[in-house]
Structures are given as structure tokens and as C-alpha cells.
């Protein structure tokens, strides 16, 4: 090693040590914020002859300077002993996880979970372990998923414990496992999805050996229930860097098993039929939708529905791709096919019905605007756009704008101007007509009275006809609406004499 290389090495080492010390100071500062609860709890355990450690994600977040009010602890006390120690101290106690050694409690605005040291074993068929309680913090930490989650702070002394290089990995923003990743993922394949989720949430890069193990063991994810996959996928998409998490899933082949429609968008592009890489385009749309989401509400919660729609809006393209004469490529009706595919995939992942419906509707509607940009819409068409979008309209605005990824600056500017114009027209018509409440000019009760009919299909058909007129023509006077109702009734052969 040359003198200059040696100096660089020393400088780099000093910088790393400085960052580690700074991170540890952050942890102490964060602990001071919640000191009353942690201090009281640790004193109770110490007085009873037990050890207590802040552990896992709580330590990681404290080191990152973002510790919340949900704290994780581990202890050598057995579950029943933990319950006794919490009784009389906590405002609320719950023991739904006591069979796994975990009890929860609430005090002074802070939620704590306390788990007895674990020394579990896995049959490597399912993912639920044979629960066994351990006796040491060392044995508990080595079984944890990632090194950045395998650090602890002993209380009340606040001694820092890092047996697996978690601090160095945190400083270097690296995601690695305490044990060999093959063993960790064989014990619990869900940890592979958690790796992608932490890449998204923390902005870390997975270690090479972690990526290699995820790639080799991707098929093991079949051991995990759809519900657990959905939870991790949702957390990934709601992270700070979801694109990185999705790219890791695709790179390792995990996406082929949990969200196969996404890697399927990596269409081959030959020299005669040029078109966008739909996969890369969709990731860009996801990025741009998140930018719009954050600019609209910087302090708001991540919008899972918008992010799912942005990622999946073009999943119908592979099934609808057609090569045209002259070298063109078309994807006719891919929004219709895509909406059906979205419903099928999200159902398989056990998403709630309202989420499935909203994402599918956004995918179905995302191309509608291009009819506006190609030519002038009537007021009727604008009303229908608003009516069909309903409460999804703000999300649809963001999705359509995000879907513009062309590098042609003139074309991009023209599309944005066209959408600006559409939003302005929507605002003008809405102000005049209250588009958010587009309904027929006669309600069901009045329809029954005027036609002399009982509740039934005729009332619904008449109501729908009047709503279509309302969308086409805008508001009508009461007399006009009655006249149109009678005209419709005569055409249907309904006796209104």
C-alpha cells in the first residue's frame, strides 16, 4: 500500500468511526426523549433481577434519529414474569402474542412490546417456528433478520451491543444478515420480501450475498401466505424509495412469484419495432406519481392506491401488443385488459375490495384523457370524465400527469398544457353545475309519483335515463326534466294517462 493509499484508508476509517459515533449519539438523544417510560420499565425489571434491552427496529430508528413511540424490548424474563412486571405499571396490557413470548403495553403515550429472548428452531417447511425461549442476548440477536435490526441497548445502563456489524452496515446503508442469508431465508422466506421492503423504506442497498441468496431461493416464497406477502408489498410501495424495492424483487426473480405482471412488462424491443420499455416506463410513472403526491400534500400519508395504479397501469400491454405494418407497435384496449388483470392479481394477494376496485378503475380510466389531448371535448365529455372518475378524480389527475414520460420536451409540454386546460374546464363547469354531485334533475320518489309506478326496475331505468341527459346537456329546469321523463315513458310503452 502506497503512502497516499494508506492515508486515504486511514481517513476513510476515521470518517466511518466519526459517523458511527454520531449515530450512537443520535441513539442516546432519542432515548432521552422517551427516557421516562424506558427508565421506569428498566428499573422495574432490574429490581426483579431481570435484564431489559431496547432492541431491533427501535435501536435502528434511534440510530437514524427517528425513534417513534412504538418501542421493542427483549428480556430474559419469561412471559408470565413480564406480565407481572407490567401489571400496576402499564395503563393497558395485551397478551395476544404471549404464546410467542410477546406482551404489549401502553403508558403515557408510548406503546411497548416486550419479548422474551428467543432461540427458535424452524422445520423449513412452513415459516412458523417451534418457539423456544433463550437465555442470552447474544443468542437472541443472531436469529434476527438483518444486522441493522440485530443491535441492542441495555437498560438502564444504556450500554450499546452490536455483535454483527449492524452499526457499520447502517452507516454504509447496507442490508445484510447476521447469519448466512441462505440459513436466514430458509428459516423464514418472508425475510426476502422484508429485504426489499427495507431497501424501499430505508434507502439501503442489499449486500451481494443477500441478493445472491434471494435469487437462488426465490421459489421458497411459495411457503408464505398471500396475506403476509400483501402486507410486505404494501409497506414496500409506501416506503421512501419504492422503485428500488421493486427493482430488487424483479432482479432476484421474487417478483415472478408475487407480482409476475411487473417483470412481464420487460418486453423485447427489436430494431424494427421500437417502443418504450414498458417496465422502465412504469417505474418512472411510479416515481412521478409519488412526486405529485408529495407536492400536493408534503405531510400526508403515502397513497397506496395511487402507487399501485402507477406501477400496474400498463400491465395489459404485453397481452395486447401488436406489430403494425411499417414498424409500428400498438396496444389497443390495454387499459381494459389491464383493469381485469389488476383485479385478478390484487384479489390473489388478498387486498381489500375497495383497494382492488379503486386501483382497477384508475387503470381503466388512465387513457381516457388522450382523447381530450387529440381533440376538443364537449362539456358532456368533460362531465362524463368527472362522473366516471368520481372520488378518484384527484388521483386520476396525478396518474395521467405522471404517465407522461416522453423525452420529447415539446410533446411533454403540449400534454401538460392540455391537461391544465382540462382541469381548468372541470373547475369552471363544476363551479357552475356542482359536478361532484351530478344526479338526475328528478329523484326516485318524484319519478314514481309522476309515472304512477311502485318501486322497481322501471324507476331505476328512468333515473339512469335522466342522469344520462344530465351528463349530456347539463342541468335542466324542473319542467324540462318532467317533459323528458314523460317522453321516455311513452317510448317505453308506459301508460302515463
TrEMBL record:
The keyword Membrane belongs to this UniProt entry's keyword annotation: no
Catalytic EC class: transferase
Residues covered by the HD domain: 278-388
Cofactor(s), names only, from the UniProt record: Mg(2+)
Entry EC number(s): 2.7.7.19
Alphabetical GO biological process terms: tRNA processing
Record Pfam families: HD, PolyA_pol, PolyA_pol_RNAbd
Gene Ontology molecular function: metal ion binding; nucleotide binding; poly(A) RNA polymerase activity; tRNA binding
Any coiled-coil regions, as ranges: 405-435
UniProt keyword annotations, A-Z: Coiled coil, Magnesium, Metal-binding, Nucleotide-binding, Nucleotidyltransferase, Transferase, tRNA processing
Top-rank taxon: Bacteria
Protein's name in the database: Poly(A) polymerase
Lineage, top ranks: Bacteria, Bacillati, Actinomycetota, Actinomycetes, Pseudonocardiales
Amino acid at each position: 500500500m502506497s503512502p497516499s493509499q494508506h492515508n486515504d484508508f486511514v481517513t476513510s476509517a476515521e470518517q466511518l468511526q466519526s459517523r458511527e459515533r454520531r449515530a450512537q449519539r443520535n441513539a442516546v438523544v432519542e432515548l432521552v426523549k422517551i427516557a421516562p417510560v424506558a427508565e421506569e420499565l428498566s428499573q422495574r425489571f432490574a429490581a426483579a433481577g431481570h435484564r431489559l434491552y431496547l432492541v431491533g427496529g427501535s435501536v435502528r430508528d434511534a440510530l437514524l434519529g427517528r425513534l417513534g413511540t412504538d418501542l421493542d424490548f427483549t428480556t430474559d424474563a419469561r412471559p408470565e414474569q413480564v406480565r407481572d412486571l407490567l401489571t400496576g405499571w402499564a395503563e393497558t396490557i395485551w397478551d395476544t402474542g404471549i404464546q410467542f413470548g410477546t406482551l404489549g403495553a401502553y403508558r403515557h403515550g408510548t406503546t411497548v412490546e416486550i419479548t422474551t429472548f428467543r432461540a427458535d428452531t424452524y422445520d423449513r417447511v412452513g415459516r412458523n417456528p417451534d418457539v423456544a425461549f433463550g437465555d442470552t442476548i447474544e443468542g437472541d440477536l443472531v436469529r434476527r433478520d438483518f444486522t441493522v435490526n440485530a443491535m441492542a441497548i441495555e437498560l438502564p445502563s444504556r450500554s450499546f451491543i452490536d455483535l454483527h456489524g449492524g452499526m457499520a452496515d447502517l452507516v454504509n446503508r447496507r442490508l445484510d444478515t447476521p447469519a448466512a442469508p441462505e440459513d436466514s431465508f430458509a428459516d423464514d422466506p418472508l425475510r426476502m420480501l422484508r429485504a426489499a421492503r427495507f431497501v424501499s423504506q430505508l434507502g439501503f442497498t442489499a449486500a451481494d450475498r443477500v441478493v445472491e441468496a434471494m435469487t437462488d431461493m426465490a421459489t421458497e416464497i411459495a411457503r408464505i401466505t398471500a396475506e403476509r406477502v400483501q402486507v410486505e408489498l404494501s409497506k414496500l410501495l409506501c416506503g421512501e424509495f419504492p422503485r428500488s424495492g421493486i427493482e430488487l424483487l424483479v432482479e432476484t426473480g421474487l417478483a415472478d412469484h408475487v407480482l409476475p405482471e411487473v417483470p412481464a412488462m420487460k418486453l423485447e424491443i427489436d430494431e424494427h419495432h421500437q417502443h418504450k420499455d414498458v417496465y422502465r416506463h412504469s417505474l418512472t410513472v411510479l416515481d412521478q406519481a409519488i412526486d405529485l403526491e408529495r407536492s400536493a400534500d408534503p405531510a400526508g400519508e403515502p397513497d397506496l392506491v395511487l402507487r399501485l395504479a402507477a406501477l400496474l397501469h400498463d400491465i395489459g400491454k404485453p397481452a395486447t401488443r401488436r406489430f403494425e405494418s411499417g414498424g409500428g407497435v400498438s396496444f389497443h384496449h390495454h387499459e381494459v385488459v389491464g383493469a381485469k388483470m389488476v383485479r385478478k392479481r390484487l384479489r390473489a394477494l388478498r387486498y381489500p375490495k375497495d383497494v382492488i376496485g379503486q386501483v382497477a378503475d384508475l387503470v381503466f380510466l388512465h387513457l381516457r384523457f388522450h382523447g381530450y389531448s387529440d381533440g376538443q371535448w364537449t362539456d358532456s365529455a368533460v362531465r362524463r370524465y368527472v362522473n366516471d372518475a368520481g372520488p378518484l378524480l384527484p388521483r386520476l389527475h396525478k396518474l395521467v400527469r405522471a404517465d407522461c414520460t416522453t423525452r420529447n420536451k415539446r410533446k411533454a409540454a403540449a400534454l401538460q398544457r392540455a391537461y391544465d386546460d382540462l382541469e381548468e374546464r372541470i373547475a369552471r363547469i363544476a363551479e357552475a353545475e356542482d359536478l361532484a354531485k351530478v344526479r338526475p334533475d328528478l329523484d326516485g320518489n318524484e319519478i314514481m309519483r309522476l309515472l304512477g309506478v311502485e318501486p322497481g326496475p322501471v324507476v331505476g331505468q328512468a333515473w339512469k335515463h335522466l342522469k344520462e341527459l344530465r351528463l349530456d346537456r347539463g342541468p335542466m329546469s324542473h319542467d324540462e326534466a318532467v317533459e323528458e321523463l314523460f317522453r321516455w315513458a311513452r317510448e317505453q310503452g308506459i301508460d302515463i294517462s
